[in-house]
Amino acid sequence: MPVGGKILATLAGTVFPRTAGFNSIDYGAASPETLMVTNILMFIGGGSAGTAGGIKITTFLVLFFAIWNEIRGRDHVTVAHRSISSSSQRQALSVALLGVAAVMAGTLLLLMFTDEPLDRVLFECVSAFATVGLSTGITPHLPPDAQWVLMILMFTGRIGTITVASALALSSRPRLFQLPEERPVIG
Fold first, then answer.
1. 92: left (phi over 0), alpha (psi -120 to 50) or beta
2. pTM, whole model, 2 decimals?
C-alpha cells in the first residue's frame, strides 16, 4: 500500500472494530497479531452513550485508572482532580469480568463444536459479544450448535452488560451492620 493508503487503513482499522463493523481488510487473511489487536479493540468497544458494543471505553478507563492508582499506592482512584467511587469501580469490574466470562465460555464451546483454530474462533466470539459484525469467514461454515453460541453471545453482548450495569447501579442498598474486615493475600 502507498503511505496514504496505510494511514487510511490504520485509522479505519482502529475505528471500525469498535463501532461500525466495516472491514477494510480481509480478516480471514489477517495475521494473528492483527486479529489480537482487533479483538482488544472490539472487546473494549465504543462510548457508553452510543450503540457500540463491548464493555465500553468508560468501563475500561475506570479499570485502567484503578490499576494506575493502585500502582502509585493511592487509596482512592482519582482522574483529573475527580474521585471515582468504589461502587463505580465494582460495577466496571463486574461488567468487564462478566464480558470476559461470556467470551471465554463461547470460545470454549466453539472449540468443542468445530475444528477451527483458536485465533479464528476467539475473533468470532469477541466480534459476536461486541456486536461488531466482523468475521474471519468461518461463521457460515459452522455447525448449527456453534451458530447458536454466537447468537447467544450477540444477545448477551447487546443486552447483558447494559442490564448488568443498570441492575448493579439500582440494587445498591445500605447494610445495617458491618462485617469484620479481612485482608486476603492477593497475587
1. alpha
2. 0.83
